[in-house]
Amino acid sequence: MDALTQLIEAFVSVKANPMTDAISREGMMRAARSLRRAYEHSEDVAARQDMCIASVFGGMALANAGSVRCTGWPGRSGECSMRRTAHCARRCCRTRWRSIGE
User: Fold this and answer.
1) pLDDT of residue 2
2) At what angle do helices 18-40 and 45-65 cross, to 10 degrees?
3) Looking at beta carbons, which pairs linking 33-40 to residues 24 or more positions away fall under 8 Å?
4) Tens-digit pLDDT profile for residues 1-29
5) Residue 102 domain-assigned (yes or no)
6) For residue 65, which of 16, 47, 77, 97 is within the disulfide window of CB 3.0 to 4.6 Å?
7) Does the residue 43 lie in any domain?
8) Phi then psi for 33, rounded to 5 degrees?
9) In this structure, are residues 11 and 100 in contact, taking their beta carbons and an 8 Å threshold?
């Protein structure tokens, strides 16, 4: 979930650029097709590889697009949980609405 959150955060950042958008899109596609598979079938090497690459891409994109205070916010406030992840994503999206299809 952290990898996907970082990818979304970089994509909606006001400091995003064509490079970070391309990295984020690729990472989000990999996470979308593999996150559930990697969780439910931990022996699925292809799914785990996709998630590993998505994680690296999330770090690369976030480092170059800047944070919009979502990734670190739940941990600092003590509210880091699956329930809070959707709330965090909504906070990020309010910063800059963009469609993945752009």
Assistant:
1) 87
2) 150
3) 35/1, 35/4
4) 889 999 999 999 889 999 999 999 999 99
5) no
6) 16
7) yes
8) -85, -15
9) yes
Q: By residue range, what is the domain housing residue 49?
A: 2-95
Phi, psi of 16 (to 5 degrees): -65, 155
Token pair 């958008």 is at which residue? Answer: 21
Answering whether pTM is above 0.70, one says no
Number of domains the chain is built from: 1
Alpha-carbon distance of 85 to 3, in angstroms, equals 12
Residue 70, in any domain of the structure: yes
The structure tokens listed for 5 are: 């959150």
Q: How far apart are CA 1 and CA 70, in angstroms?
A: 13
Crossing angle of helices 2-12/18-40, nearest 10°? 160
Residue 100 lies in a domain: no
* Tokens describing residue 92: 């990020």
Which residues make Cβ contacts (< 8 Å) with residue 63, sequence separation at least 6? none
- Burial class from Cβ neighbours inside 10 Å (0-12, 13-18, 19+) for residue 101 reads exposed
